[in-house]
Amino acid sequence: MKEITAIEFNDVISSGQPVLVDFYSTECPPCDALAPKLDSLEKLFGNELVFVKIFRQGNRELAEKLGIRSSPTLLFYEDGKEVCQRLAGGIKRSDIIREIGHIAGKEKTAKILSDVKPIVTEADVAILGAGPGGLTAGLYLCQAKINTVLIDIALPGGYMATTHMISNYPGFIEPQPGYMLSHNMSEQTKRCGTVYKVAVDVSRVDLVKKEIVIDNYETVKAKKIIIATGTTPRKLNIPGEQEFMGNGISYCATCDAKYFDNKEVVVIGGGNSAIEESAFISKFASKITIVHQFDKLQANMEAQEKAFADPKISFMFEHEPRSFSRNGDKMEVEVEELKTGRRKMIVSDGVFVFIGLIPNLSMFSDKLRQDEWGYIKTNEDMQTSIKGVYSVGDINSKKYRQITTAVADGTIAAIAITRELD
Question: pTM of the prediction?
Answer without folding.
Answer: 0.78
